[in-house]
Design a protein that fits this description.
mainly alpha
C-alpha cells in the first residue's frame, strides 16, 4: 500500500495539483483582501476575515478546487496506462485509496496554509481579533466537511469520466447549500455540511451574516453530527467505489 501512495505522490509532483497547491493560498489572500476591504471595519468581537475564509470561500471557490484536485488526480491515468497497470497486476482499489490519500493530504496542506495567511491578514492588516483555537477548529471542521464532496467527486468521475461534469455538479449544488444548511434536511445534502458545521464555530450564518449568541444555529450539536455524518458518508462512498472497481477489474 505504501508503494501505491508513494507512486501517487511522485506523479502529483508533475501534475496540475502541484500548481494548484501553490495557487490556492494566493487566491484566498486576494479573495479576502477584496471582500474585507469592501465591507470595512468588522463589528467588535467579530471577524470579516473569518466569515470570508470559512463561509463565502467554501461556497464560491472551494467546490471548484475540490473538483479539480480529484479530476486532476484521476485524469493522469490514460486508457493505455490502465491497461498496462492491469497487465502488471496492480490493484485498482489500492490505487483509488492512494489517490484519496494524496488528494486529502494536498487539501489539508492548502487549508492550513490558507488559514495561516488569513490569520495574518486579519491581525496585521485589518486589525481584527482572531482566536487561534477558533481558527484551528474551523480549519479542521472545513477539512472534515469537505470529505463527502471529495468522495462523491471520485464516484462521479468514475461513473461519467468527464471533468466538466464533476466540476459543474459541485459548483451548482453548493449554491442552495446556504438555504438548506439552516433546515433540518441539511443532513441529506452533502454540500451543506461544512456551512452548517462551521456556523457555531465562527459565529456566522450560512447566508454570510453574523449570528448572535442566542441564535439556535449556535448550538454545537450540528457540528458533532456533521463530523460524524461526513466521516460515515465518505467511508460509504469509498466502500461503494471499491466494490465497483473490484467488480470491473476482478481484483
Amino acid at each position: 500500500m505504501n508503494n501505491y501512495i508513494k507512486a501517487e505522490f511522485i506523479k502529483d509532483k508533475r501534475s496540475a495539483n502541484a500548481t494548484l497547491m501553490k495557487l490556492v493560498p494566493v487566491i484566498v489572500v486576494v479573495f479576502n483582501l477584496l471582500m474585507v476591504s469592501l465591507m470595512g471595519v468588522a463589528p467588535t468581537g467579530k471577524s470579516y476575515v473569518m466569515a470570508t475564509t470559512f463561509n463565502w470561500y467554501p461556497i464560491l471557490i472551494l467546490p471548484v478546487i475540490l473538483s479539480l484536485l480529484v479530476v486532476n488526480s484521476c485524469s493522469k491515468e490514460t486508457p493505455s496506462h490502465l491497461v498496462s497497470q492491469k497487465s502488471l497486476g496492480l490493484s485498482g482499489s489500492k490505487m483509488l485509496f492512494a489517490k484519496n490519500v494524496v488528494v486529502l493530504v494536498e487539501l489539508f496542506v492548502m487549508l492550513i496554509i490558507s488559514s495561516v495567511l488569513a490569520d495574518g491578514l486579519g491581525i496585521f492588516i485589518f486589525k481584527e481579533t482572531i482566536h487561534i483555537k477558533t481558527l484551528i477548529m474551523a480549519t479542521i471542521t472545513l477539512f472534515i466537511g469537505s470529505l463527502p464532496v471529495v468522495g462523491m467527486s471520485f464516484l462521479l468521475f468514475y461513473v461519467v469520466h468527464k471533468k466538466v461534469v464533476v466540476i459543474l455538479i459541485n459548483f451548482l449544488l453548493v449554491f442552495p447549500s446556504a438555504l438548506i444548511a439552516v433546515q433540518s434536511k441539511w443532513v441529506f445534502f452533502l454540500w451543506a455540511y461544512s456551512l452548517r458545521m462551521l456556523a457555531p464555530i465562527i459565529g456566522v450564518h450560512p447566508n454570510g451574516t453574523f449570528l448572535t449568541e442566542e441564535d439556535p444555529l449556535m448550538t454545537t450539536h450540528a457540528t458533532y453530527l456533521g463530523i460524524l455524518l461526513s466521516l460515515m458518508v465518505y467511508l460509504l462512498v469509498l466502500i461503494t467505489l471499491n466494490i465497483l472497481i473490484r467488480r470491473k477489474n476482478h481484483d
